[in-house]
Amino acid sequence: MRCFFWTLVIAISVNCLFSFKVKAQSDEKLDSLLLCLPNAKADSNAVLLYFKIGELYEKSDLTKAKEYYNKARMLCDKIGYSRGYFTFAVNYSYVLDIEGQHDSAIVVNQKALELAETEKNRKQIAVALGGLGKSYTYKSQYETALDYYQKALPYVEEANDKALQAKFNDILQCLYYYLKQHDRAIAYGEKAVAILKDKPNSQEYGNALMNLSVSYLHHKPPLPEKALEGQLEVLRIAKLNGNLKMQASSLNNIADCYLSLKKPEDARNYHEKGLELGKRMNSVRTIYISSMGLGYYEMQKNNFDRAETYFSEALAIAQKHKMLKQEKDCVMAFVDLSLARNDYVAYKRYERSLDSLSNIVLNETIQKALLELETKYEAEKKDSRIVALERERKLVYWLSGSGILIFILLVTLLFFRNRIIKHQKIIAEHQVVQLIQEKQLIASQSILEGETAERSRLARDLHDGLGGMLSVVRLNLKGIRTGAFIEDEDVSRYGKALSMLDDSIKELRRVAHHMMPESLLRYGLKASLTDFCNDIPSVQFHYFGNDNRLDCPLEILIYRSAHELVNNALRHAEATHINLQLVQEDDRVSLTVQDDGKGFDPDTTPKGMGLDSVNNRVASFDGKMSIYSSPGNGTEINIEFQLKRKL
After folding, report:
1. Are residues 139 and 229 in the same domain?
2. Tens digit of pLDDT for each residue in 480-500?
3. CB atoms within 10 A of CB 135
């Protein structure tokens, strides 16, 4: 399997798109500007002075930059200088996005948009919409970002600024690319390139052409000849301008073009150039892409050791920099390499890692999709509120010219109408929230059911397949001893081998049992938890209530939760005594795990992956998990589910 590795250049910073950001003169020094502050009058010039100081601090101290931007904003509020808030919004949101505080940046730009719409300032409306689109792009909410950029486009076209229009079309190309709408991406990309055609050596032209070439190759069907022609031109522009980052991107993109044209040797040459340049630049992404490309090339040539070296280098980079999707691609590459080597043991190991990473990536994708739906819902709700308020305002103006009696009557009708609308809106909001919760519940339960089915399958395969084979091997070994002469010096070795085989069979059965205990499926929670606790000397199990069986998915969830919590207490809390208690009544079931370990502060200590996983699964069954702990006083964790009475 060959994966494509693309380096899509997106120049979407508002500070690049708009010329409205305050520019600090190169000859202005920070110290001299700071000396001017005590004597500055509280007017618009002082506001500009704060902005200049803040921008100089952007390169060295973002906290200081925000401090002076806030001083500028407060002075704007004091003297009623609304234009200054627009500059504040651009500068302050820029710093927030650098720090990764994209939600805060959205709030700042949203307020700027409301102010610009109130003042009907079309230029500042475009600036605020672009800022909102930028922040949502950083959050990977591309559809929402696209909406804002599309709204800003008419204002940009009014400005009659070709460079600005080209950048906006290039941004729209990139967003449609991320949304996999390659026809639209190509349409906007070609428009951007056409606008910049009179500047064929500019870096802006190179960026737009690079993005367009990437879209060509991902088109259905691909257009590798066009893509290659564009990428070679990008490489020329990058060398002409001394832009090493653009050079590195174009080298790897050219390699993938040649790969699409079935010219692997040419692809290898450009990946090697990309790797060399990436190491010289210390560019993590370039080294990763080049290493993966060279690894696949060597694997296709059956140079498995060299392929493993390249893949290992890429995997180390992905893990070090927490590049989850790239780490998944690396593990997939090792799966392919193991198959090519006929190394079944390594293949199974990497396949398990791939399944785990795939689940994590899927969960993140689901969370992003839900967040995107929530954002859209809030935006639509706000638009509806604005429309409703506008209609009511016009209605009030009309009523003021009518007679007092009609006015009172209409106001009364409007009052009851508003109450009905409010009631309907509350119902609609409740339905939306309920729908989102149901989707989350379905997604979580589907993952749990899939995991349970896989555990059951693996347990059966281990017990019935490999376990049976080991038992047959043991019988054959005993048969050999009965019918063959063994030297005295080999008797002890034979006995040791037979003992090790017995231990292996026991361990295999233990693993298969813990993956999906047969006692849980046959006899329920009480029997399975009793077996589990009997295997651990430091754990005591207490059961109270009736012996009624619960739904199978809930029993499995409770068993897995108990297993995870006990293991956490043994592994992390260093507990010597653990009390596991299960209380089952007609309308509820409660699981409690107490330990005498070192404890922790639940309010300040971040939860680990194990506790988060248990909490999420409990929530998917409408359960509740409570943690009571403090340093040095052990930990108590309680999980409770409300049961529906069966008629």
Report:
1. no
2. 655 555 566 666 676 777 677
3. 28
